[in-house]
Model the fold of this input.
Amino acid sequence: MNTLVIGPGGNLSRAAETIRRGGLVAVPTETVYGLCCDGSNESAVDRLFETKGRPEGKPISLLVSGALQAERSCGYMTPAARKLAEAFWPGPVTLVIDRRPGTSDRLAAGGDTIGVRCPGNTLALRLAYMSGRPLAAPSCNPSGAPSAVDADMALGYFGGAIECVIDGGKCRIGVESTVVSVTRDGIRILRAGAIPEEAIWRAI
Done:
């Protein structure tokens, strides 16, 4: 397979069409590159797990174009979740919310929650908006390897195995997002990341 590389000024319509057809696209965010597919397409999700070598039972978060898409397509945004979205989206905070019925069991690892994030990167936002799908988007790396922080790393990992890489240069932050559980059961910080914990609590 020839992997198409789309530069920062390139036409993203081919990448969006690739997503709609069930293909895999590496896309930059402000943290690290993500390896994306249509999160509502089970065969695409299966291929994502296989390509990454991702262990079964490990959940995958979704990239969305904003809080509206998160609530319509993914799950229930509590008042605390909405506050964090208003404070940090687009940006490096992943919110774990109560998932909507019909959301992929595999992405949720069979649980009742799903992670969602609106990335602070124009290319990733445009891809989520143009494809019209929430994007299943783990980090772009074979499981256990360092996350790709530029297009060359993404191609080194998956060139010839995926349809498309969107080259947005080097990621601005280079570390993973902060992950916060904001469900009906309460609020917990699950992973430290780009946004300090004290900023999370101040925003809530």
